[in-house]
Amino acid sequence: MSGIIQILIKNHVFLFFIILEILLLKHISSHNFNIESTLEKNFVEVSGYFFSKERKIKNLLSLKIINEQLLKDNHNLICENERLLNSIFLNDSTTVFSQKTQAQVVKNTFNKKQNFLIINKGFNDHIETQMGVISNNNLVGMTSIVSNNFCSVISLLNTDLMISAKIKNVGHFGTLSWNGRKFHELILEEIPKHAIFQIGDTIVTSGYSNIFPEGINIGQISRYEFEKNTNFLKIYVQPFVDFTKINFVFIIEPLFKKEREIIEKKLKD
Questions:
Q1: Which domain holds residue 106?
Q2: Residues 201 and 262 in one domain
Q3: How far is CA 133 from each of CA 130, 154, 245, rounded to the nearest angstrom?
Q4: How far is CA 245 from the centre of its chain?
Q5: Is pTM beyond 0.70 here?
Q6: Which residues are within 8 A (CB) of 11 and not within 5 positions of it... i.e. 6 or more apart?
Q7: d(Cα 144, Cα 162) in Å, to the nearest integer?
Q8: pLDDT tens-digit map of 115-131
């Protein structure tokens, strides 16, 4: 301990210089959007690199667990692929994704108000901002800051994220969000009181967003309550994704997203 204190005393001028540099960069970036955006991208790139290295070390120490999870993920993907193929040939439906890229999670938080993930895919892998992120066809979140080789993902466990969702077999839709309390409980609001559903029913994406295709699983209804002085319910949803242990995800983009964006832009104009 005394050795560490001596090192700090010996290098106090250099450490003071570093602290001043950080404060100066923070002050400059807070008054300049372009600089702030560039710093954010650089931060994601650098932190993603170091988190990736840290993840590799952890993987070496827990290869058995990772392999078991990979086997489970592959099994689920095979089952999902068979279900989609049956849907295509039996119901004459088409796929809803134009892109589906696998990525590894190198950083994940779940105990904050604004939780996020960092994954090892970026611009070089054709990843853009505001793309959906799933795990075994269960919604994880949305891409946010993208660098060349990494990007951050806004988790469902983020108080800033709101999603249009619906009760799968009923059709009533509302706004899904997280209140920052329990990491195993989301809230679906704006559902009318006359809606007929049961505890355990599945909540999925509504498809009204240009980011998430319709029908991506989110979670199941755990409980509900009547909102006072309104005609709406507050439904509590247990997410299918366990945010305490995510290793791999898929980045998706809805089919015809660009075409839809053009139409929506013309309507706004």
A1: 98-269
A2: yes
A3: 9, 9, 15
A4: 13
A5: no
A6: none
A7: 14
A8: 999 999 999 999 999 99
